[in-house]
Amino acid sequence: MLFSAIIGQESVQQQLIQAVQHNRLSHAMILLAPEGAGGLPLGLAFTQYLVCDNKQENDACGKCTACIKAAQYIHPDIHFTYPVIPRKAGDKPISTDYVNEWREFITAHPYGNAYDWLQFIGAENKQGNITANECADIIHKLNLKSFESGYKILLIWMPEYLGNEGNRLLKLIEEPPANTIFILVAENQEQILATILSRTHLIKINPISKDAMVQALTSRAQASPAKAQQVATISAGNYREALYLLQHSEDDYHELLRNWLNGIFTGNRQALQEWIERISSAKTGRENQKQFLRYFINLLEHTVRLQYMDKSQLAFSDEEMDFAAKIHKLANMDQLDQIIKTLDNACYYIERNANAKLLFHALSIKLQYIFRKKELPVV
């Protein structure tokens, strides 16, 4: 994978490239990225850059033999470790047992998470692990001489799945063979063994910026500009979730929200009841209901930011900017805080299978009281 194929993250790309160009490359690093931010694509692009025979100023060449092999994930000096499951009882699996599935997965789903991978290999309810046998295999492979490149590279995806057996790698990480590079790609710093964390250089990666997300959704996923703006607002820098939202939502959240608020403010009971019937239908689905509420929460948070930040610093669409201005006229900061908490509670109950029709009916009444600055009735 080339750096040019990654969504956003230009500053981290430059940090990695300059570390190589200025000979400041750490032999063991952790790319710590939240889900869907591109930690794995960055790791894959960096491994290709390291083995490239004709490095360009900002990327690998993509044409040399090493690049071609790296792009197909078959370069003999790039090794991968990831959580796996036993195929049958008594098996002691290692990553290479799933190498064909791994190549297929990262080609099709480079922004996927551990759950996606484990379902891809048929784990169902089984727990994935990076086992003691895998650690022994790593030690064996990295003590061999490199075949073609000046580097031997190990990319460990999801080191959170390393239990105490990961301590077997400490000596190798502390005193690696010459030109051996460890690249760990993680999502949760707290779940990484402290002994490994203390021996690696931590590089923190931010969620994808909204502008980069919108551009990716329109160019790669063929989303309309309006839909891309909505999805980018909800997904908060998570490209995996953004794709999920595109695939599972046919609703225009902005139009849906406008109709709901019109019903609340005008007191049109029939229109409000029809809206509740629509949003609570089985066709809409719980996940879509939750994402709609998250969209509303994000727009309210934008409204708050708008009071303290320059408009030019905020990645708002015209629709979102107009909405924020109108909401600001209708509700003060106290009311906005109450609404956000109320919507957040509703998301919590949707996740726990609350009756959607009752929930949205009660939610509509609560919002009416908040906007009118009335005390909610105690039931």
Automatic annotation (TrEMBL):
Pfam families: DNA_pol3_delta2
Top-level taxon: Bacteria
InterPro entries documented for this protein: DNA_Rep/Repair_Clamp_Loader (IPR050238), P-loop_NTPase (IPR027417)
Listed Gene3D superfamilies: P-loop containing nucleotide triphosphate hydrolases
Cited PANTHER family: DNA POLYMERASE III SUBUNIT DELTA, REPLICATION FACTOR C / DNA POLYMERASE III GAMMA-TAU SUBUNIT
Name under which the protein is recorded: DNA polymerase-3 subunit delta
Organism (species): Chitinophaga defluvii
